[in-house]
Amino acid sequence: MAIPHAQPGDVIDVRPLGPKLAEARSHALFKSADLEVIRLVLQRDERMPPHAVPGEITLQCIEGRIAFTCEAGERELAAGELVHSAGDEIHGLHALEDSSLLLTIALKAAPAS
């Protein structure tokens, strides 16, 4: 069953999942013309291979611990820590523990032709 996206003005719970983390899945919380926010769930040793997105991103660790690889090198994030990445920068993730993260993507409109 799909989780509905929040609408403007909706309150979204982004607190740690705690015991529910083991069964949780990643899902988009909302998407607008300029912004997308996703709760990303990675189980221990799960990886997101290196990739790039056109817009800038922030990645905030809500619970657990992850290794974030970017052009500046590998950064370890624990609960309560946030990292920023420039648009078009190649980055990847490796969950060092079961983790949930808040991923924010600044969406860039396609250039006008």
UniProtKB/TrEMBL annotation:
InterPro entries for this protein: RmlC-like_jellyroll (IPR014710), RmlC_Cupin_sf (IPR011051)
Coiled coil: none
Annotated Gene3D superfamilies: Jelly Rolls
PANTHER family (alphabetical): SLR8022 PROTEIN
Designated name of the protein: Cupin
UniProt source species: Caenimonas terrae
